[in-house]
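Worked Example 4.2. Consider the chain below.
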Amino acid sequence: MQKYGPMLQKLGEDLDKGAKRGKEEVIKMSKLVGIQMDILSLALQKEKLYYDIGKEVADKIMKGTIEAPSLDKYRKRLSSLETKKEKDRKTLSRVGKARKNTSAKKKQ
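Applying the procedure from the previous section yields the following structure tokens:
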């Protein structure tokens, strides 16, 4: 044991140093990941804010409470989409009523 004692002592010291360095690396990595998660969260909050601003501006465009010539192309598109949506709702309503009438006749 005396022969291997110093070698085992050195091995233990080296392992201890390695574990300490590993611990430091884990701490460093966890801090980096935390910062990256904060950055991602801020980017998502920014995107949500863009969405909210856009929605509010779109409502004002459609109501005519905001005038900006550069936004006219969006007004036309929004109006077109709204017209199509209403047309589809009316079609859906007619199809639904026709279906109910057909079902009622079959039951009689």
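DSSP finds two helices and no strands in the chain. Residues 96 and 102 are 10 Å apart (CA to CA). Compare this with Example 4.1 before moving on.
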